[in-house]
Structures
1.
Amino acid sequence: MRRALSVITAPMLLAGACGPVENHVWLTDDQDGITINLDQDNELATPYVRGAEVNIRVHNDQGLEDYSGWMVVSNDPDVFRVDELDIDEDLYARCVAEAVGTAQLSVIDKNDELKTSAIIEVAFPDELEVLAHGPQVVDAPELQDSGSVIEILVGGEATFEIRYYDVGRRLSGNGVLDAEALDGIELGFEATELFEDEEWLRVTPYEVGSYSLPLLVDGDYLEDFQFLAVDDSQVEQLYYVAESTAGRDVGDDMDILALALDADAVPIYGVPFTWFDQDGSSLGEGDILNYHYDPWATREVTVVFGDMELSLVINASDEPYVGSSNYVGCQAAGGGAGLGIAGLAFAMLLVRRRCQPMAPGSRVL
């Protein structure tokens, strides 16, 4: 049986006449952020997760801007469909990963010459990875590997990145996540596309208990996201993880993540921290403190939750500002090398009950 082709032709543009030029063409997508492709080979983050929208960019090495009459063709639009072409210096194909399988994507110029082609694979995940965003901000993957069920504070919002895998391979693409509604929790979904396509799940529980949230991918059930909703009585101590200052320059942005831990040192997410500057003025609410690195300056800041507080000294002369790991807009993934739980090298840690006197000698600046 003959397969239908998905063929989209670029609109005709007015352009001056020019002679034939040998033009090398290659493809990239919007899945892996900003890359420099010196080899000028196709660089596509296939396989794509089923249901994802994918933008394919057609490049050329001659500075060609007139793509009049060019076509981007899928030999199996039931698997990978080309919906629309846009021209903005380069040629962009707006595509959809429709179904599990493979398809060939071809670029054909106005003279019906094949310029390049690529095999596209679409897959459905067999497992998910759920990563709390806070540890990603400070590059602390060890916090994701506690082996315990994720804990979220009742009434607090926690944000998690969802990654898709098929037979151990990470699948690219986003915008395909959903969940079945459960009583007692509020959900939010967000897809970001700044440096790479990422999928985010926001969870706010309103009742203490154990939850199994059925997660759907492109409308089909995949697996449950299990978490515990706990109240503030489970918070035993405050903690922080900071980006390493090694190799950093004056003025570099640095992040610190505040954490609440339970009796087993398991992080509790969604905790509303308040930060204070060294003069006692409030810096704001959130779990992320951002400051500009200055190795010749020190500044004491304090983070508070309930009757607990944690004080630390940072290398900053300017007033820091407070953000939240629930914000995933410009910073969709974490920054530099993190210190982790075992090695907080540059700042002093002090945890105490708020308003409780400190023991002599308990503080070194």
Note: The chain has three domains: 6-123, 127-232, 234-353.
2.
Amino acid sequence: MSNHITRKFLAGVTALSLAAFYTGCSSGGGGATFFWGILGTGANTCSSVIVRIDLAAAGATDEQLNCARAALIGAGCTVDEVEVSPGSGIWDVTISGCNFSDLSDLFTCTVNGVSASDLDEFSDIVGDNCGGGTPPLAVDDTPVVTTTTTTQAPTTTTTAPPTTTTTVFPDTTTTTVGGTTTTVLGTTTTVLATTTTLGVTTTTLAGATFDVVYGFDFPMSTVGALQIDSDYSGAGGEFDGTGANVACAKAAGFTALEAFNDNDTGQVVSQGFADSAGFAAPRVLSTCRFVDADGTPPAPSAFVNTTVDCSDLNSQPVNCFTSVQSVTACACGDSTVNCVTENCDNGASSATNTCGDGTVNCSACTDEQCDDGNATDDGNGCSADCQDNSTCGNNIVESAFEQCDDGGSCQFGSNPGAACTLPAGAECTGGFCQTQSGDGCSSTCQTEP
């Protein structure tokens, strides 16, 4: 196929690929190794995916597959390839036995006499167990997604000591680095005490906490991909988290695929964005949480941005400019949702960790999903930090969220209809385990009439 738009963010960003549009066919090729991947949002988890590959229709000269698990998905994943009927040249490849992001490389296979676009046209997902629905499938001769997201450990709370400082910055600062000019707007920042909670494991840092807001300033025309490196060596602190677990989030309403990576050693945080529909300036890109060691608010000009890649929808280079638009105090308990890790703030009471008081409320500026009167994980589906950790289909009634749980049944593979349990579904060789309705217990583990 032609018009195959692919953007791969380089140099340490948790790389994304955008393989979204296919409208025609490209030339074929000889025997080679190809990569199959899924291009969901990255916000959902899959426990199994079945991909059907029609080698006969794709024109393969040897209708045999030699497949392997993609190394980046994580330990425990298995890949099974089964020819649908002997000699048909149609194969079902199942990846299962682990949890993986819906934005992931799945497996690699060696095929003779075809191109990536041929395989892309004749490959489809015929079964999956993914939250958020079936993700799009892509095939390429390089990794579709060069890193993936695996299940994270729950929560670590980071608390900064009380500090109050007010600093007024100059109106405008212009910085030129490597030919890229970045204009930074002035800001007034007040530092307050803060308690915040992340959904990933982070390192506890001493100091005051700030939200650093990154903006896209130019051009006004549409771009399809943007990657920036932000050098914070002169800011006097560090971003919370490290690597892909850095505490950054794309702006609300921004539909682009995003990736973040913090190189603590080099003191550079990298950010990548890709959108098949494109996006244009001016707009806010992201917010990242920064901890200043001595409680002094950094100036926006202390963060020096370099544009690593900026391209239009035809993959042609574009001159792009970004800036740190503001540095604001992250203050849980001030009745304003103003921290990248806050999703609620009802005032001073919100800053207190109230998980375990028996009331579902705003705890440490994070909405509770449940509260069973204790701050322990006692197996009822309500975790120690008052979040939903139930698994419908594991044959255990987790009463905080479930009324029943009768497991699941195998779909596809060599054992269809057999009873199975999630999340692994190990009973389903070559297929996957899925909960069912119509037997008195629904697919969401609620009692049926």
Note: The radius of gyration is 24 Å.
